[in-house]
Amino acid sequence: SYQTRSFTMERPTDTAGVLYPECVRQLKVMLGLPASAESATPLPKTIRLAGMSTSSLSKAAATAVQPSLDDMLNARGQTSQARLHDAEAALDAVRRKFGNKAAQFGA
After folding, report:
1. DSSP label at residue 40
2. Quick check: 106 pLDDT over 80?
3. In b/e form, how buried is each residue of 17-36, taking b as 16+ CB within 10 angstroms?
């Protein structure tokens, strides 16, 4: 059977580190699993294809984002979203130069 689900995130993002966990959470909900289920939890049925799409895209520089309280208290003056974006960009650069398995985020 074919299912779709629509979800709007609370804050804009441009990082896979934010999008991927949300996609996994939405898949779990569609399959009737608790959103908090461990990643090792077996799926109740075989999944042939899972995908995601984005919409309402805009240029990052033109998108106003209200900083969280944690972002406001951060002494470095950079939001957590911006730090994650910079880390992913650096990781992408290393992978382009040395191959996809050259580096990854730590646990």
Report:
1. T
2. no
3. ebeeeeeebbbbeeeebeee
